[in-house]
Amino acid sequence: MRGVHAEAVAPAIAIAALLAGCARGPAAGGSAPYVPRAREVTLTTVPLLVKEAQTPYPFLKADFAKGGVLEGKEVYAFSPSTVTVVQGDTIHFTFINPEDDLHSFVLPGFAVSLPGQTTTHATYVARTAGIYAFTCNIAAHLPMMWGQLLVLAPGAVAAGGGETGHP
Known about the structure:
- Residues 1-28 have low confidence and may be disordered.
- Strands 2-1-4-7 form a four-stranded mixed sheet, with no helix packed on it.
- Strand 5 (103-107) and strand 6 form a beta hairpin.
- It has helices at 2-22, 60-64, and strands at 38-49, 75-79, 82-86, 90-97, 103-107, 110-114, 118-125, 130-135, 146-152.
- Helices cover 16% and strands 37% of the residues.
- The radius of gyration is 25 Å and the shape is elongated.
- The chain has two domains: 1-30; 38-156, Immunoglobulin-like (Sandwich).
- The protein is of the alpha/beta class and 167 residues long.
């Protein structure tokens, strides 16, 4: 009977050990739950292939000409193009637009106009975990000028860590 009893008890002990390991909270010696924080994020609009660059790069003349691959378009970017935060975090954006072209920053339910040669501040709360595209909604800058806001679920980060935003 000893062997049968030991075989029956061993799985129960293993399951209990697994459950104890999964139930780590402050009382069980685990880390505290994530506490949302404020994050400072600076995004800059960057010209990559624009009409003004035709003089130093003569090959662009054909690209911007009628029928060219960039006809009616210009290629700009946001730098950085990916921002990572945690659900519940408040993001204090600083947008720098050093050029004279108007841009915008658009997330679902959030839009900011970025006039030329200005610094613009805006605040956004990352309420729901997920991956959200942000764009400039100026027609000549689409579809090239975009990026991603990655909002992690609180359980995806250690409470003591979470330094996932950009400095």
